[in-house]
Each structure stands twice: as structure tokens, then as C-alpha cells.
Amino acid sequence: MGPNILSIYAALVVTSISIGFWAGTKTKNRTDKQSTANPIVPSLNPEKSKSLEEELDGNETDETEESTVSSVGDGDIGSLRVDSTDDNCKMVLVVRTDLGMTSGKIAAQCSHAALACYKTLLVKNPTLLRQWERTGQTKVALRCDNEGELLLLKAQAQSLNLCARSIQDAGRTQIAAGSRTVLGIAGPARLVNQITGKLKLL
User: Fold this and answer.
1) SS (H, E, C) 177-194
2) CA-based torsion, 137, 141, 110, 195: positive or negative
3) Class of 96-201 per CATH?
4) Which pairs count as long-range contacts for 42-45, CB under 8 Å and 24+ apart, including other chains?
5) How far is the C-alpha of 159 from the C-alpha of 51, rounded, in Å?
6) Contact, 93 vs 139, CB < 8 A?
């Protein structure tokens, strides 16, 4: 290769990198502007929002799934505010250990609880959801001994306007129908820790 070909090759590489950098920054700026406007649901219209909110207000059942989500006793989730951009948010999944669920069953039930919390915050408090996403999407699996303890934790969380969703199993596999298996609690870490701080890791 002669010096002329090397200089052409070097110029081509520098030009390609420059164009790629320029295109990337333009795309990022456009994405940031869209994200600031409504980063979670840019095209959510009021009719869809209302129907999703109505769906979340009652018990949600999906025939293809093995659980029911309970939102009975919700506080005003929408009124919950984060203090600043540094205010960490977290999601805690409290699993009943007295049911003897296999690890696969626990994983499925925790997934139901996490999704139920996410869908609720998407409609009722998208600002809190964005903050949870920005601060690392912290999820912690904890244990409790029985249904009574699970229901007490749920009531305490709802009294602080935290998102609290309990999962009831459909009873198609290992667990009796209607058994509450997992409680998902989401919100600012300072409040979630007040409720779940003494529980042990799963």
C-alpha cells in the first residue's frame, strides 16, 4: 500500500467516525426530547388510559396466566411524590415461605407481582415509575411466614400510598386456588424500607 492509499483510508475512517458520532448525538437529542415529553407512554390517549386504569382498579384475571392481582384497599398512589432526582425507588417482592412453592413457581409468581406493580405505576404514577427506572430498577425478594403477615404488610404499604399488589394463585399446579403467594410493593426506598426493612432475604 502506498502513502496515498493510506491517507485515503485514514480520511475515510475519520469521516465515518465523525458522521457516526454526529448522527448518534442527533438521535440521542431527539430521543431525550421525546422522553421528556412523556417517556413512558408517548402515544397513550385518554381513552386507552382510562380503560387501563379501570382494568387495574378491579381484580385483573388472565385465563392464560395462573394468578389474579388484587388491588383492593389502594391508597392514593398518584399522590406519592419523589423528593428529588436522587430519591431512590425500589420494588420489593415478598414471598410466602409456608406454601412450599418450588423455585420455578416462586419465579413465576414474582414475575406476576412485578408486572402488576409496573402496570399500576404506568397509569397511576408514571413519574414514580420513571424515577424507579432511572435509579436502577432495584428489585429485592424477601420472605414472610404466612398470609396474615403478607396482608398486614400490604395494608401498611397502602396506608403510605405505596403501590402494593398481591398475587392470588389460580390453583392449576402446586398451590390451592386463591392462595396469596407474593406481595409486590413499589415506591421510594425510604418508605418501602419502613414496611419491609425487618424482613429477611428470600
Assistant:
1) CCCEEEEEEEEEHHHHHH
2) negative
3) alpha beta
4) none
5) 25
6) yes
